Amino acid sequence: MDSSRAGRKRxxxxxxxxxxxxxxxxxxxGLAMQTVRELTESQRSLVNTSDVISxxxxxxxxxxxAESGQRGYLLTQDESYLQPYDNALSVLDGQVEKVxxxxxxxxxxxxxxxxxxxxxxxKKLELxxxxxxxxxxxxxxxxxxxLTNRGRNLYREIHSxxxxxxxxxxxxxxxxxxxxxxxxxxxxxxxxxxxxxSFLLVITLLVVAMVNIRKDIRYRxxxxxxxxxxxxxxxxRTRELQLYSDELSRSNRELEDFAxxxxxxxxxxxxxxxxxxxxxxxxxxxxxxxxxxxxxTRMRNAAGRMSRLISDLLEYSRVSTRGKAFEDVDLNETxxxxxxxxxxxxxxxGGEVNSDTLPIVRxxxxxxxxxxxxxxxxSLKFHRPDTPPRVVLSYRTTEGIKPMHEVVIxxxxxxxxxxxxxxxxxxxxxxxxxxxxxxTGIGLAVCRRIAERHGGHLIAESEPGKGTRMxxxxxxxxxxxxxASDPDHHTDG
Length: 493
Prior knowledge:
By secondary structure, the chain is of the alpha+beta class. It has helices spanning 2-76, 82-101, 109-135, 139-147, 150-321, 331-341, 343-349, 365-381, 443-453, 481-485, and strands at 327-330, 352-355, 360-363, 390-398, 404-411, 457-462, 468-475.
């Protein structure tokens, strides 16, 4: 009991420790995933912000280069200024499309970007208009347009918006850098905490393992000692049981010999009593008178009953000791033989015997014949005077630890009070007088002993006037020959 309780306690400790480890691992995994998500989000935001700044700078640079080329050409008429102008305009549309596709996390930033794109489109038209006037030899008109400062004012607005947009993106980038640094610091802290907890858990596991190993060693030593003590007790008990078995076998042999000798010695004087009684009745009946004849008849009947009792008692004692070896017995064939033997009794009573298909059992064939013969014979004998006997044999198998064949013999006879369901199996116990029903009162005791010899049961169920059910249960797998030969072998129940 202590070993079992200690084992359950160790299992509880290990279960608790395993649960704690799983919780720690789950928490660490959650923190790690959260940290990774934060780092990933910060990194993505930084990349996006840098992309926004880069694309806006490229666009701003192209606008500035186009305006510089325009002003240089208009003021100097030197066509070399048109090269940066043309280069800037050739890439401007592509840069505008890239800026249109960028995404930003800053509130109102998208509106500012859209506004700067609108201004750039106006600036582009202004650049193209003035350069085309100059190229078409309308230099004064082009200069006049330039000096209106419309283009410069557009660029100032564009430049101001670029500064605002870039300032907001730089501010966001600084925030993201700080968040990234904070996430890195938190990741380091989580790593330190996780490492410390894991180290403590490993140390705890080692300590618990060492404690359990020491306990197991002590328990194993105690268990080995218990096994040694138990083995000694078993050996001692085995020796005692062997002595008891030997003594019991000797006693059974003596009882069997005594029963045989007693029955033989008792039968001899009974036969003489019956023989001399017959001579008295034959030779001196005239001298005995009516009362003498009555006494003589009673004496002979008593001697006959005594002879039958001795024979039945000897038969009861030999159920276990003189039984035959077990073999496969077809109960259908046994039943057919019994019905042939009982044919006269069935016809005289106007009775009927019906049966399901019965099983093949591992048994003593003679004792199976005796068992069924006695039970069916009782069903025919104990019938109601005004009702022909009806006997039905049914069969089924029972489930459980020990599967059983179950043969039920149901009749419509006189029945008996359920309180006598066990008493009827006691030798020489009768529920009715000899004048009502013949018999010595030992037949059912023999039947139960036969069932028990085969590792089974014989159960009686009845109610007065409602017939009787005799239930024969025999193990499907049978019993060993040693068990069947053991005079004291019995089953549970």
